[in-house]
Amino acid sequence: MARKSALCGVLAFGLAAGLLLTGCPTPTNNPDRNEEEKEKSKNTSTALTENVWTEGSLTENQINEYTISVTSGTIYFIWWNDSRQGDSTKTGDIKVSARHSNGDSLFTNVDSAWNNAQYFTATSDGTVTLSVRIDSSWNIGTYEIVYRTTNTRP
Questions:
Q1: pLDDT of 8 strictly over 70
Q2: 3-state secondary structure of 100
Q3: Beta-carbon contacts of residue 118 (< 8 Å; ≥ 6 apart)
């Protein structure tokens, strides 16, 4: 009986090792799961209100999205408060990208906009989506973002 138990143990170990070595999907090497996790980490969009600071927080691989309704010909100024530039109250270091609903990329992966706003002129009516992600995996945490149509930080 002891011989059967030992044999079963060796077979179970061999099977487990074989599965790991053959590249069978695991939580860390399954590309479909990695894409699913990235998609899950994307929050739904939050509409921003002009002149109102909106707080957010990020973890690794997370993307927060914010929307602004824009009018053609209007200039929009965007500021954010994070751990690298800001009022020293935030823990996350973020980068921000903006895309208009007409497909135009307005800016991509900008690291800071505290002293100098990031801005764009809307070329058509629509919605601009701001995508916020962490800039460095060791600087996850909190931030704030705001926009307005005059170049004075609220």
A1: no
A2: strand
A3: 77, 78, 79, 96, 98, 107, 110
Count CB-CB contacts under 10 A for residue 130: 23
Contacts of 21 (CB under 8 A, 6+ apart): none
Whole-model pTM: value is: 0.73
Which of the residue ranges 14-18, 81-85, 89-93, 147-151 would you say has the lowest mean pLDDT? 14-18
Which residue reads 């200039």 in tokens? 75
Helix, strand or coil, per DSSP, at residue 75? strand
Judging by DSSP bridges, how do beta strands 63-70 and 105-110 pair with one another? unpaired
> How many whole angstroms separate alpha carbon 147 and alpha carbon 73?
16
The count of other CB atoms within 10 Å of the CB of residue 101 is 14
Write the burial class of residue 134 (CB in 10 Å: 0-12 exposed, 13-18 middle, 19+ buried).
buried
Mean pLDDT of 16-32: 46
Residue 110: closest CA among 120, 131, 95: 95
Other beta carbons within 10 Å of 51: 12
Say how far apart CA 117 and CA 149 lie, in whole Å: 11
